[in-house]
């Protein structure tokens, strides 16, 4: 076993994680689920803290060679104790791929499926959401979100009815640009929402000023996407050794440090990095267990990154 604090190169960790993923077998294999959970404020339902985004990564053709690694990504997520899979009609074939893989693995009951409505008009929104549920091969989704606030008043009215009817479990909104924070904040103050999904990363911390505190005040769960700054953060850290204190927070790669930095914020409920590689999923999922950084450690992480 490697001594705490001794860095292991990400490439070496990923080779080990890939071997472990292959050796663990199918999604039905019994493995201890060690991932931490946090409650969804509006319902109290425990949610695992690391999930899987599907933007770009799951937009693939329905061919065995393309689907096989994605099936293993989901298997690794579930074996680690994760459940959240986030998609959108905007993401090409991602919803269809998720639905196909969950059905083939008989894993629908293990998944907390989130998707979005991304169109204008009541009837168009209803049609799109029904299509999403058909592609996902589900009669109910755990979370339906208004993507980038597009026609949010219209869609939230529909979603309130759908939630009452049991078609969706939770309702939320999303946005990815800092320029939309004023509107995002206004909707969060005006509407009773279960979730808000935002970009948040070590190099993109604008949501810390108003959005995250407001989510905590309003009792809204927070999904975090783009936790690696669109990949730029990891590329910039690729050749840098881990800090000698990384083992103190249970981290063996920079990816885990970046994810734990986000989980150190008390308003964050779940982080959903996207990947098409089982080894990356294993690496990400490992950040969901063990110590959570306090503010002092978060400051240390930020300083280590800025030291460049």
From TrEMBL:
The keyword Signal applies. Residues 1-29 form the signal peptide. It comes from the Bacteria. Pfam families: Aldo_ket_red. InterPro entries: NAD(P)_OxRdtase_dom_sf (IPR036812), NADP_OxRdtase_dom (IPR023210), TAT_signal (IPR006311). Keywords: Signal. Residues 50-298 form the NADP-dependent oxidoreductase domain. Transmembrane segments: none annotated. PANTHER family: ALDEHYDE REDUCTASE, OXIDOREDUCTASE, ALDO/KETO REDUCTASE FAMILY PROTEIN. This is Diketogulonate reductase-like aldo/keto reductase.
């Amino acid at each position: 076993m490697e001594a705490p604090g001794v860095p292991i190169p990400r490439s070496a960790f990923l080779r080990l994680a890939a071997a472990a993923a292959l050796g663990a077998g199918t999604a039905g294999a019994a493995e201890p689920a060690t991932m931490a959970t946090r409650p969804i404020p509006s319902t109290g339902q425990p949610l695992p803290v690391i999930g899987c985004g599907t933007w770009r990564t799951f937009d693939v053709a329905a061919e065995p060679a393309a689907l096989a690694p994605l099936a293993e990504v989901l298997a690794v997520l579930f074996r680690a104790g994760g459940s959240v899979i986030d998609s959108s009609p905007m993401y090409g074939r991602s919803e269809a791929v998720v639905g196909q893989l969950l059905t083939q693995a008989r894993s629908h009951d293990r998944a907390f499926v989130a998707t979005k409505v991304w169109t204008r008009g009541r009837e168009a929104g209803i049609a799109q959401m029904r299509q999403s549920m058909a592609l996902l091969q589900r009669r109910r989704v755990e979370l339906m979100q208004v993507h980038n606030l597009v026609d949010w008043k219209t869609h939230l009215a529909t979603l309130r009815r759908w939630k009452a009817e049991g078609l969706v479990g939770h309702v939320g909104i999303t946005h990815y640009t800092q320029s939309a924070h004023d509107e995002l904040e206004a909707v969060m103050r005006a509407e009773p929402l279960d979730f808000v999904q935002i970009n948040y990363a070590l190099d993109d911390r604008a949501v810390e000023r108003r959005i995250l505190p407001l989510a905590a005040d309003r009792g809204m769960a927070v999904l975090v996407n783009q936790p690696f700054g669109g990949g730029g953060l990891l590329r910039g850290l690729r050749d840098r050794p881990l800090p000698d204190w990384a083992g103190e927070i249970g981290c063996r790669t920079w990816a885990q440090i970046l994810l734990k930095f986000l989980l150190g914020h008390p308003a964050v409920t779940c982080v959903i990095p996207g990947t098409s590689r089982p080894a990356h999923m294993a690496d990400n999922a490992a950040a969901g267990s063990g110590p959570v950084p306090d503010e002092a450690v978060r400051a240390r992480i930020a300083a280590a990154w800025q030291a460049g």
